[in-house]
Amino acid sequence: ASGANAVEDVAWVAPANPVKLVSSKPIEKSGVDLFKADAVVAAGRGFAEESELDLARALCDKLGGGLACSRPLTEGVNWLPTELYVGVSGLMLSPKAYVACGISGQMQHMVGCNRSGMVFAINKDKNAPVFKQCDYGLIGDVKDVLPALVAAL
């Protein structure tokens, strides 16, 4: 094709050798089943360093919930596995409580949690779109808010 909207018909040719399954094994998942969790704590780009994710994990432990994330944490910095990504191309969750930590609230992410019973957002940007889509919001840095929240629980 020349790149100028050209269409070319090509006949399908079967492979010379059939496809053969050599082996398979189930994908091992660790942690909480996010589809069954009553509470999900989701981490976004508001976390400046990978080590700060321990703050979100501590809240998960207090709530008995599971850790999820926004796409940039799986594809941008590779801090978390893609199985934890919430959004259009990821998980569609419906927990009783969804805590969005450092997540801006772009539509691509929010469609993955809009069936939650309650959405609580924490973001240091008071103009973040997440605040227009949450039930409760707290303006603050996750580094400051999460330790205080965990201590209060």
From TrEMBL:
Under the heading InterPro entries, the entry gives:
DHS-like_NAD/FAD-binding_dom, ETF_a/FixB, ETF_asu_C
Chain ranges of the Electron transfer flavoprotein alpha subunit C-terminal domain:
33-113
User: What GO terms describe the biological role, i.e. biological process, of this protein?
Assistant: fatty acid beta-oxidation using acyl-CoA dehydrogenase
- Entry GO MF terms: electron transfer activity; flavin adenine dinucleotide binding
**Sorted UniProt keywords:** Flavoprotein, Transport
Segments spanning the bilayer are: none
Q: Which SUPFAM superfamilies match?
A: DHS-like NAD/FAD-binding domain
Stored PANTHER family: ELECTRON TRANSFER FLAVOPROTEIN ALPHA, ELECTRON TRANSFER FLAVOPROTEIN SUBUNIT ALPHA, MITOCHONDRIAL
Q: Which family does it belong to?
A: Belongs to the ETF alpha-subunit/FixB family.
Q: What is this protein called?
A: Electron transfer flavoprotein subunit alpha
Q: Which organism is it from?
A: Eggerthella sinensis
| Lineage, opening ranks | Bacteria, Bacillati, Actinomycetota, Coriobacteriia, Eggerthellales
